[in-house]
Amino acid sequence: LRKQIKKMEVSQHSKYFCEFCGKFAVKRKAVGIWGCKDCGKVKAGGAYTMNTASAVTVRSTIRRLREQTEA
């Protein structure tokens, strides 16, 4: 339990990559709300990480299906 909480706290306090400005400046503002310090963009995400595992899976599936329909 102690190691699980440590993992969550490390991931929620780390900086993430901003897709809009291209810098590692995204930090957690509140539960599920992530904001970039440089460009000011606000993005919804997971509670402890910016991208949840299910969101990454859905995004890759949508991209794969989009590439199949274009080809």
Automatic annotation (TrEMBL):
<dbReference type="InterPro" id="IPR011332">
    <property type="entry name" value="Ribosomal_zn-bd"/>
</dbReference>
<dbReference type="InterPro" id="IPR011331">
    <property type="entry name" value="Ribosomal_eL37/eL43"/>
</dbReference>
<protein>
    <submittedName>
        <fullName>60S ribosomal protein L37a-2</fullName>
    </submittedName>
</protein>
<keyword id="KW-0863">Zinc-finger</keyword>
<dbReference type="InterPro" id="IPR002674">
    <property type="entry name" value="Ribosomal_eL43"/>
</dbReference>
<keyword id="KW-0479">Metal-binding</keyword>
<keyword id="KW-0687">Ribonucleoprotein</keyword>
<dbReference type="GO" id="GO:1990904">
    <property type="term" value="C:ribonucleoprotein complex"/>
</dbReference>
<dbReference type="GO" id="GO:0003735">
    <property type="term" value="F:structural constituent of ribosome"/>
</dbReference>
<keyword id="KW-0862">Zinc</keyword>
<dbReference type="GO" id="GO:0005840">
    <property type="term" value="C:ribosome"/>
</dbReference>
<dbReference type="GO" id="GO:0006412">
    <property type="term" value="P:translation"/>
</dbReference>
<dbReference type="Pfam" id="PF01780">
    <property type="entry name" value="Ribosomal_L37ae"/>
</dbReference>
<dbReference type="GO" id="GO:0008270">
    <property type="term" value="F:zinc ion binding"/>
</dbReference>
<keyword id="KW-0689">Ribosomal protein</keyword>
<comment type="similarity">
    <text>Belongs to the eukaryotic ribosomal protein eL43 family.</text>
</comment>
